[in-house]
Design brief:
34% strand; 391 residues; 3 domains; 4-stranded antiparallel beta sheet; alpha+beta; disordered N terminus
Length: 391
């Protein structure tokens, strides 16, 4: 650039500083780090969900319930429920064997035994409602249109924390006639929105001796150190102290009202998490392959040929001659075919980023099933710089 050109740029209001590079171009700028809220990176120790489970009956089915001859527990449950309601059958106590036999003789196809599950959120108080999921336990064909009877929901300690009851919403449909059947989605499970009422609260201790602990969702020393620095920068030095690669101890206010305000500000802090470990996840059941942006690849040569074995067996009838007093014999004749595709060596170029790795693997033209074997071989050869996880 001439001195006259530089003066013209200054007259236009620009100040330029030009570096002449051998390559003739400026290097690309590094991508900006992505900040995440602290609430997306950590959880508070003591603030957790609790699983609830219960066993109950669904009634009002249109002939799609359990077959009582094959599911005796449905009949026994119904007999016990009638006994608790003071109802007797054949002038006998509903809990006796005679009443059970009487119920067994009646085909109660509009009743089904079910398992009821729910999640009790933290700080849930008596009187609040939670959603429940109802799943068939016997051989009921459909729970559509059914009503769940009052079912106690118990926790791991055996105590009742909620009571569930209500009409099921099943997201499917089906019909059958003369051996033919059409079904859309799953009919043996349903959901009841706000179907359980909380009867007992779970005591949650968030602070102990004026301290609380944060737990990282993914253990990482670098991310842990960045969170500690961000919290101390916002609330003062000594507020956060790392205990290990996953746990951080915080000094919290003693007043519960101040704790709420403290946690609200804490969860809104932005932190730039460290880049995770390079990882490739292989799902052998579905053939899915997922890799993160940290995966890199070195130059390597790959040869992969599919090996297939086909065994074809056909019956051969041996017919005896006339007047030979022989018998017709059916024999089996098998043919075995072994085939292996050509597997010439192909060069796979190195990839410094995810786009280069994907481009190099696509050049092989392998199916996902073959690609799983290729990735494992690349890892064993040291050409793939990533952790393999099979799920």
């Amino acid at each position: 650039m001439s001195f006259a050109s530089f003066r013209r740029l200054r007259r236009c209001g620009f100040a330029c500083l030009v570096f002449v590079l051998a390559c003739g171009a400026l290097p690309p700028a590094a991508p900006a780090a992505h900040a995440e809220r602290l609430k997306d990176l950590v959880s508070i120790q003591g603030v957790r969900d609790n699983a609830l489970i219960g066993y109950g009956l669904v009634v009002g089915l249109d002939g799609t319930g359990d077959q009582t001859t094959e599911t005796p527990f449905t009949t026994q449950t119904l007999a016990n429920m009638l006994a608790n309601l003071g109802i007797s059958i054949n002038n006998q106590s509903a809990g006796s064997s005679n009443s059970t036999s009487a119920l067994t003789s009646i085909q109660l196809t509009n009743v089904a035994s079910v398992m009821v599950t729910a999640v009790l959120p933290p700080f849930a108080r008596p009187g609040e409602t939670i959603d429940v999921t109802v799943s068939s336990l016997g051989n009921a064909r459909s729970l559509r249109g059914g009503t769940l009877l009052l079912t106690p929901m118990k926790g791991a300690d055996g105590s009742v924390y909620a009571l569930a009851q209500g009409n099921l919403a099943v997201g499917g449909a089906g019909a059958s006639a003369n051996g033919s059947r059409v079904q859309v989605n799953q009919l043996a499970a349903g959901r009841i929105a706000a179907g359980a009422i909380v009867e007992r609260a779970v005591q949650s201790s968030v602070t102990q001796d004026g301290t609380m602990q944060l737990e990282l969702n993914d253990m990482d020393y670098d991310t842990n150190q960045r969170i500690v620095a961000a919290v101390n920068n916002a609330f003062g030095q000594g507020t956060a102290t790392p205990l290990d690669g996953r746990t951080i101890q915080l000094r919290a206010p003693a007043d519960p009202a101040q704790q709420v305000a403290f946690m609200a500000q804490l969860e809104d802090i932005n932190v730039n998490p460290a880049q995770g470990v390079a990882k490739v996840v292989l799902n052998t059941r579905t053939g899915s392959i997922v890799m993160n942006q940290m995966v890199t690849l070195d130059n390597c040569a790959v040869a992969h040929g599919n090996l297939s074995v086909v065994v074809n067996t056909q019956p051969v009838v041996s017919q005896p001659g006339p007047l030979s007093n022989g018998r017709t014999v059916v024999a089996r004749q098998s043919q075995i075919q072994l085939k292996q595709d050509d597997g010439a060596l192909k060069n796979v170029n190195a990839g410094a980023n995810l786009a280069d790795v994907v481009r190099a693997l696509n050049a092989l033209g392998a199916t996902p099933a073959d690609l799983m074997s290729i990735l494992q071989a690349m890892k064993a050869a040291g050409a793939l710089h990533a952790e393999l996880e099979i799920i």
